[in-house]
Amino acid sequence: MITQQEKDNILQGFHNIQISIERMLSMLQKFEEKKSEVKKILETRFSYTNAEHYIHTLLNRKSELQSLKDFYSDIPTIDNSINNQYKTFLQSEITQFNPSGLHLLQPSSHTQIFTFLDKQINDQLVISPNDNNVISWIKDVPNQYTHYIDTLLDLQCKLHIFDQIKAINGSIVMIGANGSGKSTFARQLNGKLANNIVILSAQHFLHYHKRNTISASGDEIQKVRNFQFNTKLGNDNNYQQLITSDMNDLIDALIAQHTDCALELYDNGNQSNSFLLKTIKLWDKIIEHRHIINDRTGLFVTGNGIRQYDFNQLSDGEKAVFYYIAHILLATDNSYIIVDEPENHLHPTICNKLWDELEKERCDCKFIYLTHNLNFATTRSNCTILWNKKFKPPYDWEFEILPENEIIPEVLIMELIGSRKNICFCEGNNRSSLDYKLYCILFPQYTVIPVSGHRNVIDYVDAYNNISSFITQAVGIIDGDHHLPKQIEKWRQKKIYTLPINEIENILCDDYILQKAIDTFCSSENALETFHDEFWTLLADNIEQQATSYVNEYTNNLFKDNFLHEKQNIATLITELQNITSGNQIQSQYDTTISKINDFIENRDYHSALRFVNFKGRLTKDKARKIIVDKYENRILDLIKKDTDLQKHILETYFSDFNF
Questions:
Q1: 420 or 133: whose pLDDT is higher?
Q2: So what's the pLDDT on residue 255?
Q3: Residue 543's pLDDT is what?
Q4: At a CB cut-off of 8 Å and minimum separation 6, what does 452 contact?
Q5: Do 251 and 367 sit in the same domain of this protein?
Q6: Which residues contact residue 288 at a Cβ distance below 8 angstroms, ignoring those fewer than 6 apart?
Q7: How remote is the C-alpha of 232 from its chain's centroid?
Q8: I need a labelling partner for 167 at 20 to 30 A (CA). Which of 20, 215, 295, 611 fits?
Q9: What total number of domains does the chain contain?
Q10: What's the rounded Cα separation, in Å, for the pair 51 and 45?
Q11: Domain housing 149
């Protein structure tokens, strides 16, 4: 809600800026007309040796001023639709630039300079004793106007950016690949006049040096807020000093304000919770097994069954919780709070709880998180995810609000766009899956994403490659699973590749890999022969199960590739079904498969059998673990990671037909 008076003040601020630009443009025009006279004044009265360059530098800003004039002539809509943060920004920024408070933009100063320059004719200086002030002002114009122009450019930058996010309700999570400009974006939001922008960086020196005295300057909180206004993103000139003094200044401000509250209660009976007590109360709520206490010698920590210990002995995560709470409680009303890597130092459960509580505590503020942590990003309620594709200062910002996608989950989209690599979707539920681990080794040029089953892989590749705004492409890898050749070729055309082996675990039981493992881990001399014997015994004991599993998958694949279409006549529908398969066909397929497996066993055709069977990981998790080495899967993956010959063998044997 904005009052009429607030609206009038903001509109007056824009009007003042427009007047200021007009006056500067007219002054530059006058300087251009009287360039030789101004040059002579600077040379004779102030001994300038580079007067012409001095003037030329100012006159070169004329095009920027003209551009500013065009920009500020388009006043943004000021009505009840603007949020409090944007309103506060406009009130603090726009209304501050008042020409009546800048002496070289005041009408009287402006007029006197014009009058003086107009009486200078034909390069002859006409100066009276009363002109000394005016001459001094002429000397100051280039420096002062340069400062005014830079200030308006800085404000233009922030106005342009805020105009793009002002309509976004709730918090914002900004994601993007490294180098896409997230930190630069945050730095541009911040500026010398930004009174309601708080930046909390990811770099924290979380140590407190106890003071022997309580600060009595009265400006402790303002000192903290001044720190918040600094960018702290790595390129401030006094960056190291800012970071190392931050925790000290923060706690000093809390203690000083707490003392003021205590004195107010003692002297006047006015009770109010200090920021220190509020910080401790929230910290205790987040870190439930500990409690912070404050006494005259400093901050200490207690807990059930433990001795009191010093604040600095808290873990980095526990101190980070205190740090974030205190800073955000001290932020000015209706602030934009920009948090770089909000998950830094924090356990995920604590991190989510902390920011949930802080967003509730400071519901007057808009939180803007810069993060690569996908789990954190998806926990923000009432949150808009911005994909920061590119940011080129001062305000050339290319971003996209991520839409909800029916096929690719939000968390997956965020992971994908955070990478500049092409994407490889694979089977597996998470990063602990064998698919993910092996493909990360074999295909380092790809960002590997496990998405559960083969159907998801197919859908995700299709969906991803159909999103025109993505600059990368996706491929997919699925297990063999007895897919039909026709299906395999159709998927291949879409960059979805099928392993020439039934399950990925069987790759790790390839003879070449087994022998490498035996040699590396000093297994018994007959380990390979023993493994083969165990394999054939396992297969012989499970012939019917393996054959039935094959027929099941084969039949399911037939239906997946041949959907029933008849909807009018039941007899036609039965005929259509019988044309796909029947009980006799299933029995025939089963008998053929039994014969095929028996041939594998009789001929000891390990290579062919390995590509056919599906023992659900029993070969690696049971047989290889017992016969070759404990924790076989993990140890063989470590070996593959280090051995380029193993990688080459796997790629040539199982992935040679993949167009990667």
A1: 133
A2: 86
A3: 96
A4: 427, 428, 429
A5: yes
A6: none
A7: 17
A8: 20
A9: 2
A10: 11
A11: 4-165
Q: Are residues 123 and 187 located together in one domain of the fold?
A: no
For residue 397, what is the domain's CATH number?
Answer: 3.40.50
Tell me the CA distances in angstroms from 5 to 10, 79, 100, one per residue in order.
9, 12, 20
pLDDT digits (tens, 9 = 90+) for 324-339: 999 999 999 999 898 9
Give residue for tokens 């990925």: 504
Check: CB of residue 28 under 8 Å from CB of residue 58: yes
| Residue 503 forms part of a structural domain | no
CA distance 296 to 280: 16
92 in a domain, yes or no?
yes
pLDDT at res. 583:
65
Nearest to 510 by CA among 647, 390, 403, 387: 647
Residues 191 and 288 in one domain: yes
Per residue, the 3-state secondary structure of 561-621, as one string, reads HCCCCCCCCHHHHHHHHHHHCCHHHHHHHHHHHHHHHHHHHHHCCHHHHHHHCCCCCHHHH
Answer with the one of 165, 180, 195 that is the final residue of a domain: 165
DSSP 390: E
The residues with which 426 forms a beta bridge, in sequence order, are 450, 477
- For the cut 90, the answer to whether the pLDDT of residue 607 exceeds it is yes
Q: Cα–Cα distance between 266 and 525 in angstroms, integer?
A: 86
Q: What 3 state SS string does 42-92 have?
A: HHHHHCCCCHHHHHHHHHCCHHHHHHHHHHHCCCCCCCCCCCHHHHHHHHH
pLDDT of residue 159: 87
CA distance 383 to 386: 10
Last residue of a domain, one of 401, 429, 461: 401
pLDDT for residue 519 is more than 90: yes
Is 236 a domain residue? Answer: yes
Span between the terminal Cα atoms of the chain, in Å:
56
Q: Which two tokens stand for residue 526?
A: 């007959």
User: Which two structure tokens, joined as six digits, stand for 399?
Assistant: 């971003």
Same domain, 38 and 175: no
Encoded amino acid at 277, one letter: L
The pTM (predicted TM-score) of the whole model is: 0.68
Q: Are residues 225 and 261 in the same domain?
A: yes
